[in-house]
Specification:
Length: 316
């Protein structure tokens, strides 16, 4: 009876549907993982070493890159192993750990985007008060809250899920997720649903609503300004807007997929849609900020030039 209500393993059933796609999928995902880690580490190293980039906006970008490395590592290491394995059973503890890593990664991304929206709002709408409001102390407080609150709230969700007696062990995904586990419960999940709703509102909808509010205020301010001012605002906000829109779409897709039967979809399409929110943002973020922001791009190009010069000097 204990094993029936507390299965020691979960079965990730979407891997079975991949079939012969597993090997090309492994190669593609390994290359994506290598690119994500490399690109985000470049952003982290550049911002850390370049003192001129020790400013609020770049510190937040560094935090986004750290989060991308954290989330991608927590997901891909297990995922790549499962792709080549004939058995797709994952221990209960490992599954819950993966849930925690993926959900905290998603929450960190949204809370950090909310903080970055606040930074852009103050810089554009209240420029004279920027250095008095966005201080080093304030940055430390905002980043700490952005990390600590999701860590605690997601832990509460995972803990409640771990206490549920389960009447099954099949998860129709390629990674562990909280909602599919909760749906396996043999008893009422009213408390889990309530806590999950509160966490979703505070870590997903509140940051999204705040970002929309700040950009509404920025748009209203720009209406009566010169074209030069509007151009500067667009240049300053475009990377953040791209990141925000991209992440909003991927989160929406993940939420929508949790309400449909993935096993009825084309297996390859189902896997791609399932992976979207843990793959696309970590790839896009370093490309957007590394290529779009001239300050970061200049430092990267300078470092590349210095490296080439050193190699030529050694070879000569």
């Amino acid at each position: 009876m204990e094993n029936s209500t507390n299965p020691p393993f979960f079965n990730l059933t979407m891997f079975i549907n991949i079939g012969n796609y597993r090997y090309p999928t492994f190669i593609l995902c390994f290359l994506l993982f290598a690119f994500i880690i490399s690109a985000n580490l470049v952003i982290i190293v550049v911002i850390t070493l370049e003192k001129t980039l020790h400013q609020p906006m770049y510190i937040f970008i560094l935090c986004l890159s750290v989060n991308s490395v954290y989330g991608s590592t927590g997901f891909f290491i297990r995922f790549l192993r499962d792709l080549l394995s004939d058995s797709h059973l994952i221990p209960r503890a490992a599954c819950l750990t993966q849930v925690y890593v993926i959900y905290t990664y998603a929450s960190y991304e949204l809370t950090l985007l909310g903080i970055m929206a606040y930074d852009r709002y103050i810089a554009i709408c209240q420029p004279l008060h920027y250095h008095t409001k966005v201080t080093t102390k304030m940055i430390a407080i905002l980043v700490s809250v952005a990390w600590i609150y999701p860590a605690i709230s997601v832990f509460a969700c995972v803990y409640l899920a771990s206490r549920l007696p389960l009447c099954g062990n099949k998860i129709p995904k390629v990674f562990c997720a909280n909602w599919p586990i909760v749906k396996l419960s043999c008893i009422s999940t009213a408390l889990n649903n309530l806590v999950g709703m509160l966490v979703s509102v505070t870590t997903v909808f509140c940051p999204l609503a705040f970002v929309l509010y700040t950009y509404t205020r920025i748009i209203l301010l720009c209406r009566n300004q010169s074209s030069e001012f509007k151009s500067k605002v667009i240049q300053s906000c475009l990377p953040h807007i791209i990141t925000f829109v991209n992440y909003s779409i991927t989160v929406f897709c993940d939420v929508a997929l949790s309400r449909v039967d993935l096993e009825e979809l084309n297996p390859f399409l189902a896997v791609i849609l399932s992976l979207e929110f843990v793959v696309i943002p970590p790839i896009l973020n370093p490309l957007v900020y590394g290529l779009k922001l001239p300050e970061i791009r200049k430092v990267i190009l300078r470092m590349v030039s210095c490296s080439k010069a050193r190699i030529k000097h050694i070879e000569s």
